[in-house]
Records
---
Amino acid sequence: MIEIADAFRIPGHMIGVTPRTWETEATTGYNSYDKRTGGKADAVERRRFIGASTGAGLAAALPEMKEISAPGQRIGRRTPDELRRRAARLRRLDEILGGGDTYRVYLAEYLSTKRLVKEGIADSETHLSMLSVLAEQAQQAGWAAFDAGKQADAFSLYKASLNAATEAGDNSLAGNALAFLAYQRIDENPQTGLSTAIEACQTAGPQAPQGVRALLNERLAWSYARAGMSKETEKSLHVAEAALGEVSQNPQLEWTSWVDSTELQIMSGRCWTVLDRPLRAVPVLESALSQYDDTQARDKSLYLSWLAESYISAREVEQAALVVGKALELSSGVASVRPRKRLRDVVHKLQAHSDIPEVAEIMERSRVQLT
């Protein structure tokens, strides 16, 4: 297989592979830029460079995908694990890029595996493993579509993931597909989203790996919060926390490895913000956000919007404006619709305080950046 770092021209250390020789050349521009800015790399320019490189590198990777998917090819027993490792490396792109940059990459991976499952030859055990891989890749592509604002594509991919995971007998991935569907539906219909989130936890079951239970229960907490159910929200957050604290001899599934105490703090803060409990939301959000580097621009700008909203609820309007300013700065150049949508909502809530100089300045900046 072509090394992913080579195929997509992305610095190898960012996706967990050994740096290649071309990386020294590729980063020369950053070094010269650093000198002009006193040694500080510009995160926005770096994201734009990597995003452009990802799109350019896609063509280099596609021939390999077609070769893997040759009709009638026998699928080796090691192929599912190889594809999972590949998916794990590509998933790290989501830490620095938005769905607008990654969607084509993830979709190509999914379509390549889908063709291989359809046209390849495999024993029953390998076939089921390939279906699990397909479900995982469909979720990865669906998330990127959702992040890029392609809601119909996201829904279709989540449903495809659910079907593949169910056929494979992979209850954890089936539960996660339902959780993705719940997360997508929550904006349009909180009750439908809540019932789907409950179904997600039931589908995965109490025997699911601890990372899966933590992930699904924190998403259930979000659904409860959106439905205005504070006691149920708190209970689900406690269940997620308990799952994270369990000691297990089994390795954590890679696709849940990003769920940790910091992620749980972020979700807790978001839930308490929605429930209009700023005294509970602000401390956990500030603590969690201190762990985020500015290179994680999409997530950090998105989570800052919840912190700003809680400051508004607490009538700390000047501080809210300051936080929105930082979020606007980070969201510039991010190929994701979600931070801008959230920031529009927060800026709208600030309009009532536009006579305050700090707010007036943010209103002006948002008119330029969010239109």
Note: DSSP finds 18 helices and no strands in the chain.
---
Amino acid sequence: MNRWQNLWRYIPLVGLMLLLSGCGSDTLSALRPRGPVARDQLFLMELSLGIMVLVTVIVFAIYIYVLVRFRKKKGDKDIIPKQVEGSHVLEIIWTVVPIILLLILAVPTVSYTVKLAENHIGNKDAVHVKVTAHQFWWQFEYPELGISTAQDLVIPKGKKIAFEITSADVLHAFWVPSLAGKQDTNPGMTNTMYFEADDAAVFMGKCAELCGASHALMDFKVISKTEADFTKWVDKMKAPATISADARNGEQVFKDNCLACHAVSPEGLGMGPNLNGFASREMIAGVLPRIDKDGKDVSDAKLHEWISNPQSVKPGNKMPAFGPTGSKPLQDQQINDVIKYLNALK
């Protein structure tokens, strides 16, 4: 009785696990593909899982049948059953069936592996993107388009996006579950992959390789647009930002303190993210929302938090603190002026 009482204690925990397994974003699941690459990969997962379930069911069915059919019944004498050896039929069955199952799994696996390993970098119909992983942010370059950005990867829907992926420091992994499986980013090496999105939507992306204190916060977004909207976005990224008079002070403070790491030009690269078009990004530092749960714009407060003490948001990142007690202290008014300037970078 005590054994069963202990077992019942675990039932609420199992129920809670099943309940929590349904939580999460629709765009952060490999089980809900939104592109052809993700669908192919899901098919392989379902195929292998189906074969495993089939084998498990058959084995357990035979086991239960033998257990019931040949169990010792009440009144049976203690005798040794007839010993049977060397059934050619059984030996053929348990040799041929696994070979057939292996072929069913191997043929599509090899086929899809070759297909998904195709390099589309030279494909004129594909959009070429160079991805560089940093602790703890993502850099995206569009060499044919002459622009560079960070954190928000913008793509046209229905077109192949050909990636060259590397790392600037340690091992990371580029992963957009709804669009494709993960690809490691290795320092000193370049890996390639491709995917495409079925429709215009926002997809969540993550680093899938433990890379430091803020690994869990190394998020990014893939923003899929119609081709017309994507072209407009490219044109806007190339157009100079209009800086109002009240943001000029902030521009000067930015140049004196931030420009050494952060570019603000269409194609600029630096130690930190390119801030061209920064005010149009959905998140600050990849993790701080501009809009709170009540629909209120909290961009200024979140930016102040990030600039003053980046380590409180992303421990281990390389940006210095500009708060009063930081390594490069600025006055509150100077930080507010920088925020006005950043909000003008649309």
Note: DSSP finds nine helices and twelve strands in the chain.
---
Amino acid sequence: MEETFPFPKERETEILLTGATCGKNVEIGHGAVIGKNVIIGEGTKIGAYATINGWTTIGNNCIIHPHVSIASEPHKNKHGEKGSVIIGNNTQIREFVTINGSIGTDSKTQIGSHCLLSAYSHIDPNCIVGNYVVMSNAVNLAAHVEVEDRAVIGGLTIIHQFTKIGKNAMVGGASKVIQDVPPFTMVNGNPAKAFGINSIGMKRVGINENKRRTLKNAYKILYLSGLGYSRALEVMEEQLILCEELEYFMNFLRGNRREICRVAHKSKTSLKQVN
């Protein structure tokens, strides 16, 4: 039978392993509670008083700090549903982070590899977080949010349900994000608005100057030309040199679910000025 808090006094100093599967060199801190359906990869460290329940799989060489709660059952889950949490390799989850189990037997809440989830962050059911994502302190993701690879989210930010944050995007601290954030862009504010291209972030991941300039021009066409989505995409295809990053940017726009964050300020920039 799976053991949960509160556990009996006579076992207060005992590490609780209730049938969980652990790889080699796993370390589990004092008073941690590990559910019977949990799988922990090699070299992962679980801090004191962490609670890991549900059908959870944690990858190799992760660090789960003290008092983290993973796969607590969401309040809308039906009794007996096998909601799951999947965490990749080399991810670090800081103190007091909470990650809800998914809603629905065939669904999942997923965190990628090489991520940093800072203290007091919260991830609601069925969120998908990509690889190399950084979430600063007290970021809150509502249900069904998707955060793509290498996005950076500033502290005290809240993300509305079903919102998508594009890869290499940067969200400023204390923002309220209620619309999709296109890849490679920077947004900030309440509600969050677009402020430009994340040039420094792109440079750090090896996107060269020519591609960064192309994406900057794509941003201008999208936000500063006054064109609608369809026409803006046509102009991008007509005027800009196609590269992998630009194609990704355009595909994101074609498939966005909640509209995109509006521009912080408008300009009279003409299309001739973006070339």
Note: The chain has two domains: 9-144, 203-274.
---
Amino acid sequence: MRLVAVKSVTEGAQLAKPIYNDNGQILLYEGVELTQRSLTRLYELGISFIYIHDERTNGIEIETGVSVETKRKAIKTIKTEFQEIASNLKLKKSFNMDHFNKDFATIVRAILSDIKNNENALTLLSDMFVYDSYIFTHSLNVTVYTLGLAVDLGFTDKQLMEIGMGSLLHDIGKMTIPVEILNKPGRLTDEEFKVIQNHSMAGYNILRHAPNISLLSAHCALQHHERLDGTGYPQGLQKNDIHYYAKIIAIADVFDAVTSNRVYRKPMLPHEALELLYSGVGNQFEQDLVEAFRRTVAVYPVGLTVTLSDDRVGIVVKQNKQLSTHPVVRIIEENGVEITQTYDIDLMKQLNVTIVATEATLAAASLQV
């Protein structure tokens, strides 16, 4: 199977992985022939990349790091609990966070279990889910990336639960933001952005009074938009004044935001998002954390078509978690000609050969010309 941008798929291609809604029900089954209408609909629903069948990549296994079942249950819980919290806040009703805490802790433990049992780098690009709210899936994705990084950094079980709860609830304050601003299909005005910025303090105020939720978790909601150079919000904190947990969540938050499909911009691929993070090293993000994050995520997801520095073209078939920028690639083209006998090369063993472009990046560039 190959990972391709929806906008570059031609009619008649066969879907290689099913598309789910946020209740876990299948919207499009594996093997269905894609029409222009179905492709347009997928893109409108926020699906930017899909897997299609390609006999040259038979046998490739796609592992995201978190199971479909874990993700389905997590999204259902997040959606239900966040909406209940929003309803209570709107009605100015007091509510007991105790049962919310138990449900969210169950999600964190399930994600941790999946991550610890996974030997591959994390990739959520291959999760073919359609959601009715960005906040729910974003909260989950940030938690997955955060916990993956925290595990790599050697956090204790207690620390993993604290940062896991903090990342899962980092945007809970957005439940206090007017829906028309929160779901605005376009760029925000300066005034609207100031309203959005209030979610950090609002989230902190919700969580700091909640029983059985660590104050450190509450500070994750408060500080995840702070930056090392003091340009963040809500307090303009700098360097060591920002909690370590919040520095980690900030990286996961930005990475998921820019790799997610939004109405007002196209999503980046993981390697493009990492370049963005590296551009902020020193003034926004700590270098050692960005370096560790690169080890955690799949820079080039399995199934992605790539061009190598020697002009060969191939498809990523396996990750090297020790060096995620150098995966195993199945060569399908040499000197501009498709070859009949494909073969695999391990870029971690051939360090003189690197990836210089991806099919999706080239397609996007051609569309802009």
Note: The longest strand covers residues 337-346.
